[in-house]
Amino acid sequence: MTIASPSARDTPYDLGPEQVARFARDGFVHLSGVLDPQVVRDYEPEITEKVIELNTMHLPMEERSTYNKAFLQVGNLWRHSEQVRELVFSSRLARIAAELLGVDGVRLYHDQALYKEPGGGITPWHADQYYWPLSSDRCCTIWLPLQETPLEMGPLSFAAESHHFEFGRDLPISDESEAQLQKALAEQEFAVVTEPFALGDASYHLGWTFHHAGGNVAADPRRVMTVIYIDADMVVAEPVNENQESDLAASFPGLRPGDLAASPLNPVLYRP
């Protein structure tokens, strides 16, 4: 069932040159009104239903690791729901990614729903690209909250300009990454930007931009949908850690280092 008109998902967003420049400078940008609030409201119930159906984390909060306290994480929802596929395949969202990255087109790496439950812990400082076997930095994530997200819900915090900082790129999300990166980023005097999100807002951040999120002290879950976009001409890189080996098998089935990153799971989402 289609729950939002194609124009709501595919009409180009008015992205200004100053926003593109800010993304290049800071490694992230928070955009207002990326989607109409009603469009987000329309898709939220289906995404939430699929998260509940497909989630495999059922331990009580006190028995979970720091990583698992941070959020419930369910990937490739587009393969389980035609409604979610509509949103993930939005050319409006993908075009923003291509314009921010300065590439001719983007393809899908994968999607992820990230739900931080009430009482959920911090998301430790990390850079996403630690997990991805990609040959360049032309990749980014849209972070699209499915409700208004005040500070008490734990929106993302970005270390501005940290995508040029190479320390900590070998650290997975952990207590260690939180401690080491918090210290290192403070020593480098990176400005940490934390803002609430209105319904319909979204942020885009580069794969090497360090980010973090506070715990959710609100009464409701912080429901977020993400899509990772990669340059349509991206090449698979040789994995440098076990997590990249796992991602190579899961996200690029049948591909090997040196191949175009174009398995059946990685369709082009936007190319003019």
TrEMBL record:
<dbReference type="InterPro" id="IPR008775">
    <property type="entry name" value="Phytyl_CoA_dOase-like"/>
</dbReference>
<protein>
    <submittedName>
        <fullName>Phytanoyl-CoA dioxygenase</fullName>
    </submittedName>
</protein>
<keyword id="KW-0223">Dioxygenase</keyword>
<dbReference type="GO" id="GO:0016706">
    <property type="term" value="F:2-oxoglutarate-dependent dioxygenase activity"/>
</dbReference>
<keyword id="KW-0560">Oxidoreductase</keyword>
<dbReference type="GO" id="GO:0005506">
    <property type="term" value="F:iron ion binding"/>
</dbReference>
<dbReference type="Pfam" id="PF05721">
    <property type="entry name" value="PhyH"/>
</dbReference>
